[in-house]
Amino acid sequence: GPWRFSGGNHLKVERLSASSIDTFEGCEARFHATYVEKGPEISGDAAIGGTVAHETLEEVITSGIHNDMATFTLKAILAIYNKHADRYGLNKKQISDGHGMMKNWHEYHMLYGFEKILSTEVKTTFTLTHPTLGSIPVTYIFDRADWLAALNSLKIVDYKSFASPMAVDELTRKVQVRIYALAGAIEYKELAPAAIWVEYWLLRYGPIAVAFSRDDNMATWRYLQDVWE
Question: Three-class SS of residue 126?
Answer without folding.
Answer: strand
